[in-house]
Known about the structure:
ten-stranded antiparallel sheet; 43% helix
Amino acid sequence: MSKRVMNPAVRVTAVALATAGLGASLVAGAGSAFAAESKAVPVTGTAAAVMAQAETQAKVAAQVKAAAQAQAAKAQAAKAAKAAQVKAAAKKAAAKPVAAKKAKGWVKPVTSYTLTASYNQGGAMWAHKHSGQDFAVPVGTPVKAAGAGTVVKAGPNGGGDGPAYGNAIVVKHANGTYSQYAHLSKIKVYVGQKVAAGQQIALSGNTGNSSGPHLHFEIRTTPNYGSAVNPAAFLRTHGVSI
């Protein structure tokens, strides 16, 4: 086997080319590294954008949550207000039957007064004993219906019971009794009119056989004179004390 010997010039050339190739590889490697580093910059910018977007979304979410909470609070307040209205309406409705019940009861014919002649009292003022209860009041004092009913007499001459009563009213009540109001200065109702307990029906006066301004009040078993019962006792049995 023969030994081959490279020409020195060729060898130098080969080494030079090899060296040049190594340099090119180094240069190429450095360029690749630089390119890799250059590509890392956009990645960093994208991350910042993602973070900014996340913060924005978090803020929007917080705003949406706050708006939802405000809406829920508003709805709750509206619900509470509605419940309060319903409760007030129910309370008012429940109070109506009580008011109606009171309206069907009995009341005093005048509010402020001084009791004078009483029922069955004797004296020169009357041909027989006193048939009612007298309430001394100034002329013009409001006179109220003692109970609910229908007016059956109203006018001068005692409404038909005689001049001694002056201007008078008789009211028929559902329980079959009658109330009479006499010596009036003004009559404010008419025959056939329905009245409620406590409704103003006249003004007190001093008409007819009267010794001074007062209201003569009777409770009768008929609409006519001569059927009177004790009015104070009658009112007491119906919860009214005079």
